[in-house]
Amino acid sequence: MAKDKSKKKARAEENGEDVAVEEQVNKNKRHRKDKPWDTEDIDHWKIEPMTAPDAASHTPFLEESSFALLFPKYREPYLRSVWGQITSTLDSYGLGCTLDLIAGKMSVHTTRKTWDPYIIFKARDLLKLLARGVSAPQAMKVLQDGIACDIVKISGIVRNKERFVKRRQRIVGPGGSTLKAIELLTDCYVLVQGNTVSCMGSYKGLKEVRRIIIDCMHNIHPIYRIKELMIRRELAKDPKLANESWDRFLPKFQKKHLKTSEKTAKKNAAAGSAAGEPAKKKAKVYTPFPPAPAQSKLDVALQTGEYFLKPKEKEAAARAEREERHAEKTEKKRAQREEAFVAPEEKAAPSLEERRKKRKRAEDAM
């Protein structure tokens, strides 16, 4: 490679060319050209609205695209009442839709009037939201540019049913206050229903909502994320911090979950301090041998001799044991009932001598 470079330099010197300029230019940027149309005032993140083309310039799609979705039985009356409104809205975008009440299915498909290739995916999201309990006026907003939807499945995160219901209610909060705070901070619509959480809003807001919901189902309270979002909103107002890291301003929450052994040790220490005794750690004696295996029922029966008894003898022994336990319980209950009839101890009336002595002590004290 060095020989090739030296040959090129010698050849360039013979021809009288300038080699220094070519060496300064990076080889990755050698073929790049200036873009006079790409200036700093252009917003590359701006979503340009897509309007319907003229009838003369419009060409239909080659293939028809369609999506079908099942809906629960309880949504049938509502869908029947608003399906005309949904049909007219989708027709304005050049889409067709059908409602099959027998099969419990909704479907949407493109037509020859469709001009936006991505609107079919938006219509699919509309059907998802309608099936999950979102109202039709709110669900139809997903057809607009800049608004997306996300359906978070929370059923498989927590196994215990009671714990799942408690954590799902934690997302809503007392009187819906937590849910309202999440909606205000993320500019998203959130609906908690059944085993899913339906969200609508910007892509950035949906990302925050999903993180809050997943963390809540993993036993991290939403208030921690809400506090972080409030601090971020205030920091975004300061232009001086635009190019700086915000880690020093954000709160850092530490987990305080204890293991079962730690909880037991803490409980024992608390019990000992309540009794006035200092907590003592028991010294464990090291034994290199493993613990003896637990005896099976057969081994116990062989040791006690029950294994060699006849069936009638076994029944008689079991009957005698039951009668003995029954007699013990009967005796215990009889003693408890008789406690109510035991007369309390009565103090005898003071004698004449005792009353005289008491009166004399009182007179001496005067």
Automatic annotation (TrEMBL):
Gene3D superfamilies: K Homology domain, type 1 (3.30.1370.10). It is found in: Nucleus, Nucleolus. Keywords: Nucleus, Ribonucleoprotein, Ribosome biogenesis, RNA-binding, rRNA processing. Component of the ribosomal small subunit (SSU) processome composed of at least 40 protein subunits and snoRNA U3. Interacts with snoRNA U3. Interacts with MPP10, KRI1 and with ribosomal proteins RPS1A, RPS4A, RPS4B, RPS8A, RPS8B, RPS11A, RPS11B, RPS13, RPS24, RPS25, RPL4A, RPL7B, RPL8, RPL23, RPL25 and RPL28. Belongs to the KRR1 family. Required for 40S ribosome biogenesis. Involved in nucleolar processing of pre-18S ribosomal RNA and ribosome assembly. Essential for vegetative growth. This is KRR1 small subunit processome component. It comes from Trichosporon asahii var. asahii (strain CBS 8904).
